[in-house]
Design brief:
The complex is a heterodimer of chains A (88) and B (152).
Chain A lengths: L1 H21 L11 H14 L4 H9 L1 H21 L6
Helix pairs in contact in A: 2-3, 3-4
Chain B lengths: L5 H23 L8 H27 L2 H21 L34 H25 L2 H4 L1
The chains are: A mainly alpha (88), B mainly alpha (152).
């Protein structure tokens, strides 16, 4: 009985995965590409950096990088808290 | 963990400075080539991990101090936030150096290695790089100095 349920669930999951994989959007042709084109056209003139990825990460979406740096800081704090040496 | 054989230690002595140099190259060229602060910081921290593995936990405790790493991490984070605040007359994270004297050149087309571009992006790259290398180095040091031999 359990085995039948497991096989059925596996089949359902597989069908969903298959449908999802078949109906994927074609690679490299997004529906909305206004923002991408804006970055590619104007990133060099507006920021002066040749690397568009860096200009997005550090300039257009600086908040994201600030959050990442904070996450790393919190991780280090957590490790220090978990592995600290207790005074006898 | 005990220190490894003399062969490993000799190779480490030769190679770790080059790994650190390569990491800082990635950090400083973040606005021209693939990479940036996070990636270069991780490369530099891997050199610390190499030192720790080959020399063992007891010696690495004297070589690298946790206090220096904590101070550099916190100050780098402050520099990053301060750079973001410096452009607040327009908007938070405004690139106020573009078009100026320092890091202000605006290249047209292919840039054959002019580092004096990008506004605040190179400075932010250096700040984030120092923060990541000291953060990951601190995690490595905590993990190594928590081992049994150091305790005894």
């Amino acid at each position: 009985m359990n085995k039948k349920i497991a096989v059925l669930a596996l089949g359902v999951v597989f069908v969903f995965l298959f449908v999802g994989a078949v109906s994927l959007h074609p690679f490299g042709e997004p529906d909305e590409k206004g923002m991408d084109d804006y970055f590619i056209e104007n990133a060099q003139n507006e920021t002066g950096a040749n690397n568009v990825v860096t200009s997005v990460v550090f300039d257009y979406r600086g908040y994201d990088t600030l959050g990442e740096a904070t996450v790393l800081f919190t991780a280090v704090t957590g490790v220090g808290l978990a592995l600290r040496r207790m005074k006898k | 963990m005990k220190e490894m054989s003399k062969i490993v230690r000799t190779v480490t002595n030769i190679i770790y400075s080059f790994i650190i140099l390569f990491g800082f190259y990635i950090i400083i060229h973040g606005h021209l080539t693939p990479g940036g602060g996070f990636q270069g910081g991780a490369v530099v921290a891997s050199a610390f991990a190499l030192l720790a593995v080959s020399y063992g936990a007891l010696k690495i405790k004297d070589m690298l101090k946790k206090e220096n790493f904590s101070v550099s991490e916190c100050s780098a984070l402050f520099v990053f936030i301060g750079l973001a605040f410096l452009g607040i007359s327009t908007v938070f994270f405004y690139n106020f150096l573009t078009g100026g004297v320092i890091f202000g050149n605006i290249p047209s087309g292919i840039n054959p290695g002019d580092l004096n571009t990008g506004g605040v992006i190179p400075l932010m790259n250096v700040a984030v790089g120092v923060e990541v290398l000291s953060g990951i180095g601190l995690i490595i040091l905590y993990m190594f100095t928590g081992s049994k031999e150091v305790k005894e």
